[in-house]
Batch of 4 targets.
Target 1
Amino acid sequence: MSEFKPLDPLLHSQLRLAVMSLLLSVEEAEFTFLKEKTESTAGNLSVQLDKLEKSGYIQIEKSFKGKRPLTTCKILPAGVKAFEEYVENLKNYIN
């Protein structure tokens, strides 16, 4: 029987896990895309993205598209590693 490792509390949140899953499958994603796909409010998504950025899991770039603000997110190597470990640890609980 394998040893149970604690699940990363940062990734155990449904919204943060959804964001990380989406970012794994794309090079980068705009805030509006993440908001639409996760069906979250702008305020809640902003808070969760901030937590992921502070943890070093994602990078957030703020720029402008014409005169409109544009926020783009990208998963970082530490985020990929954390996500993969989370999935592995979750498999141990399931099996």
Target 2
Amino acid sequence: MEKLQFKLEKFEGPMDLLLHLISKHKLNIYDIEISSLLEQYLNYINDMKAADMEVTSEFLEMAARLVYMKTCSLLPEDKEEEEQLKRELTGQLLELQMVKLAAQQLSQLSLWGQIFSRTPEKLESSTESYSHRHEPEEIRLMYQVVLNKVKRLKPPPKSAFSGIVEHKVVSITSRVMYVLRHLYRNGKMPYQDFFASGERSEMVATFLAMLELIKSKRIRISSDNQYVLFDRTRQQQS
């Protein structure tokens, strides 16, 4: 990928960034090559971090989505799911492309950007008056109903979000060592056991660490996709 050294464009969201990458690198939007798109996307995210630009959660969520799609493409039994995910992504990109095109065409209209307003009209006063008489108890009950609605609409306390906002930061390097340490001792380990902690940040970091180890051929997945195996042959050769 051509490094962006001087200026990083700002995008309204991850879909906008994907459209830019597809256009810039001349990728086929109707048959997206996920591996190539993922590489360009991650490189751009790294450039954003290097330029001290804030990488919001929606950009990281899209990165995880692309990684998952690439994982499906590597497993033969997940080909149907891969095609489904690619169709969904293609549809969203085409929809955004049409919206951007329509916005561009509207911006070229001669009236675009001008403000039209009307002067306020004088409202005719009503001669009708409210004449119904309410009993004090009825008014009290209605007042109580309003108070209850106001209480329900109050925002929740900050403590209610502590379990959602606070998260544990887990590095991929630490999970690489975690995976290798267990496999070096046992030779193999059930795939699901690596994700038994339940912590989302740990599971994501472990998943990315395993992808890196598989790519470098230090570990491999058994033919039935149930076990992760340590490649001792490669270690001896190295």
Target 3
Amino acid sequence: MYKLLLRPLLFCFDPEKVHYFTFSLVRFTSKIPGFSALYRSLYLVDDKRLETEVFGLKFKNPVGLAAGFDKDAKLYKELSNFGFGFIEIGTLTPKGQDGNPKTRLFRLKEDQAIINRMGFNNGGVLEAVERLKSNNGVLIGGNIGKNKLTPNEEATLDYEICFDALYAHVDYFVVNVSSPNTPNLRALQDKEPLTQLLQTLQNKNIAKPKQKPILLKIAPDLTDDQLLDIIDIVNATKIAGVIATNTTISREGLQSENKTEMGGLSGKPLTKRSTEVIRFLSQKSNKSFPIIGVGGIHTAEDALEKLDAGASLVQLYTGFIYEGPALVKAINKKILARK
């Protein structure tokens, strides 16, 4: 029904406005008695065989919602009814910020892709914390970043502020230094500053009564040598794992009219590259740390390819927009079929 009726209608309107409209629609319908149960009956696959334990956490199933969809932790409870095993909120920054000027979100229908240059628009970490205080069992990842106006030399403090604020309210952390939409952010992926940033957060983590897994989200545009550096950094800092991958700045092979827009590209054109990065990291590290696979998952087969390449969990974003919540169910059903 989503692909036949709802998606064609939604795709007639501005993508960012549609995003907020669907948020409101899901929130409204979820308040109607019986609707949350209806969503769960339609999309949730409740089977113990899907339970997956990764970096000390037990996931009800290995399919999560990637960061960027519920930036401010406004809808994580309602979204969990669509069958996700975990929800990643953010990217959150210490101070609220508007992000980049609109228009900043573009559909590439012919390529089944999206280009965004949102720029970490969010209400600030403390607003999200207030919403997370009422969480009653949704497994949450907290994706953290730096404010646009914070110079890279002071970026570590921004990540520390977010870590401290979210520590009691999320199950794992994701350090985002790979978005192409905050000026100079990707420079933090270089070996020296990245090692320093992750070690600082890990030191704070070790000092806590209970450690929370810290993951690093990386770009798909890294070279093999840079990916080898990532393996070294993960092993040296002993963080929990890697999320591969964020959006790409590549525009290779695109057909759509909006292909020249600036920003990060997600969706089907990223399928192959993100899987290549997962496989490279898994093989070259001798599977020494877990990987969450994300990027271009539009079918159950896409998800299985990432799991086979070395991912322990997968996340959806653009595929969820193009294919609808039935994709979550289809992936979990396909995983069960292989059990």
Target 4
Amino acid sequence: MYQLIKKLLFRVQPEKIHHVVMRGMKTIYALPFGKNVLRAFCDVKTKGLERELFGLRFSNPVGLAAGFDKDAKYIDELACLGFGFVEIGTVTPLAQPGNDQPRLFRLPADQALINRMGFNNEGAAAAAKRLRRRKSNIIVGGNIGKNKNTPNEEAVSDYEKCFHALYDVADYFVVNVSSPNTPNLRALQEKEPLKQLLHHLQLLNAQKLKQKPILLKIAPDLTNEQLDDIIEIVQETKLAGIVATNTTISREGLATPAATIAEIGAGGLSGLPVREKSTAVIKYIHQRSQGSIPIIAAGGIFTAADAQEKLDAGASLVQVYTGFIYEGPAIVRKICAGLGR
């Protein structure tokens, strides 16, 4: 059914149809028995998939990656689709429009997306306000970043502001220094600035009555030497774990014509082309750390087999984004059913 509907949806500009579909789902949810309708088609019935991680209990290991519900507008509706957790953001201290449109592009031949959204969001305070009103008890992660106009030398302050704004309403945090769409952001993945940022956040965390898990989201384009530095820093700062991985800046091996790719221009590539690279990063981190670092996997997960590949590589949880768009709202139910078997 969804594959037929998808043909119509894919005729509309990606960012526009995203808002149309999500507003439609919100309308259905608000109707009498609306949430029952959503759950009937999408909710996960498989038992035995619960996970305990970071001191949190996940109803199943399949979450929604950051970038889909940037401003926490659809948490209750997404909970009805069976997700074990939802990660909002990336959230910045101040609202910002992001990059110029169009900034989201489909590559159907590759089952992929290219985006250069640029952390468009309404700011940390707005996201926190919505999370306080949510009715579901689904686990929510807060993916945090810096504003575009904040120089890297002052980035720590932006992450601190987001941490404080979301502390009471987020179950865990993800530090995003790996998006390719904010100028110079990836420079924060270098050893010294990253160590400084994470040490500061953990110091703030230690001052709280109840500490929240803080994870680091990394790019799939890091060298093994850079991954070794990441592992060392995560262990030194006692972070809760790693999200692997963000989008890639690589364009290797795509079926989409090179001229089309050149016309689209800059942005992060997600979807099936990232699957192997993401799995390789997860396997490397898991082996080098001797399994001591919990990993949330993201990158090219469309099916139960894709999810199992990530789990076998060393991940504890998985996240979907591009797969959700290509496979439809029943993706969580299908993946969980496959994992259950």
